[in-house]
Amino acid sequence: MKHLALQLSTLVATLLCATAADAQQKTLYERLGGVFAIATVVDHFSDAVVKNPIVGQKSKNPQLREWHTKNLSRLPGLKFMRTLWVCNVAGGPFQYTATKPGSTPVGLEAAHRELKISPAEFDEVAAELGRTLDFFKVPAQEKKEILAAFAAHKGEVTAGYLATGKKDR
Question: Domains plus CATH for the chain?
């Protein structure tokens, strides 16, 4: 009986370790719940950015203000592209292909250059993303990874603004 109990406890310990290892081996894409969960978050985030007073329809940045008021017919396509981008950088099976290719396959500088997004505006979009992730109760580790992936592109997204030589808005 002791031998059986020892075998069972060893089996349980092995299964627990395997489950923990599996969780660590899953991609961010898998841990986020896949394309449908990502699309839901992107949809909410995109709508929040449009309404955001700093980077949306009432932005002091004329390019952002115009995009969020006069180009909203393009928003569904942008949501689709953002979903593909997140899936791609999160290790999912979907391939993001930029409509305006950047310096890397997931580069964003060409698509954002004309918007002249300042570093402070980028940070506000990142904050909006953080609020969206909190709204959906995304776990801390996954939130950290998403925000890090987003922050990695700050230089690309703000390149158009930085090229003007202006100080931050």
Answer: 32-163 (1.10.490.10)
Burial zone of 64 (CB within 10 Å; 0-12 exposed, 13-18 middle, 19+ buried): buried
- Please work out, in degrees rounded to the nearest 5, the angle formed at the alpha carbon of residue 126 by the alpha carbons of 123 and 129: 155
pLDDT, tens digit, 9 for 90 and up, residues 115-161? 999 999 999 999 999 999 999 999 999 999 999 999 999 998 999 89
